[in-house]
Predict the structure.
Amino acid sequence: MFQTIPFNTPDILFGMDVVSKVGDYAKKLGAGRILLITGPHVSKAGIAEKVISSLKAKSLEFEIYDRMEQEPYTTVVERAAEVAREGKFLVFIGLGGGSVMDVAKMASALTTNPGVTKDYFGVEKVARRGKPTIMIPTTAGTGAEITKHAIFVDVEDHVKKAVASQALQPNVALIDPMLTITSPPQVTAAAGIDAFIHAAEPFVSQGANPLTDAIAINAMSMITRWVGPAYADGRDLEARYYVAMGSMMSSFVLQNSGTSLIHAIAYPIGGEYHTSHGTTLSALMPSCFEYIKVAKTPKFAEMAEAMGENIYGLSEREAADKAIEAIRALLKNLDLPGSLKDLGAVQEESRVKRWAIDAHKEQRLLSRCARQLTVEDIIKIINNAF
Ligand SMILES: [Fe+2]
């Protein structure tokens, strides 16, 4: 009844063109030599130029590392970490989507901790903070600029696994909606839904608390209202601004209340089909929420209201159903998969069982679920998602 509530965030600056402040922040953190970790797309879109000119304006010495791959394999981190260790960098900047920021966070941690990435899969295994980090997202939704998590594909078994350690939380997040205007429609939709789920999933889990609930309601409302316009016209600055803000708010919820069932099932399926994180979550969200609705009916009714549904005169149960209806409509409007069939997955008994067994191992996430789950329950949820 009386919860103890943690609330951790990096030092945050949100707003149009805040990327121009990166030089000031790097200087404050003690740079020094800086390693700017980014992806080749970011360099092409001219976004890296904005960071570079801010660093040059402060006469800071930096090196650029952009040897990323489509999938964030552990080998990608190991290579970046080698450069990081040899270069004796004092500040790390991660500029890009979730995977690029995760690599930057982990590479920094590996400068002060021994070993390789896979030694740190699990909860609170990174003992020491790395060198200071500044994260600058170029998509709105992953939350990597705020959270203590970094997700990689284990090169040995091709399964996505998480390093979840408070030592990985970035020092600074510079969230500049202007950087998201080159994000293509499909990426905007998928990242936007990831952000929605980072608010919605903790909200109906046992990790929820009044502080994160207040933020989650606003995040769900803002994302529902603005992600469609941002998807339809990427140049709509107002939409970009509010989707980025909704995403920032949902990341506070993700960091401090944590995700659960949808993310747990998405890991093995996304790992197998190489589907993007956001689209994999989309395909699973309706059936996961149908399953846990019985445990959190009043919360789902609140979710419906936050999503702009008219629940006047409805019973709590009817209002809760409205939330799932609204989610299905939102996914349809964004051309995102609403089922595993839409995602292109194959419904086969042995595969479904394997996914369920792998998902069930994610007790870090499932321990927060509003319903207790056996492997058989997860099999049922996955089959209902087809
Ligand atoms: Fe996510």
User: Anything to note?
Assistant: The chain is about 50% helix and 10% strand. The pocket of fe (ii) ion is lined by residues 194, 198, 263, 277 (CB under 6 Å). The radius of gyration is 20 Å.
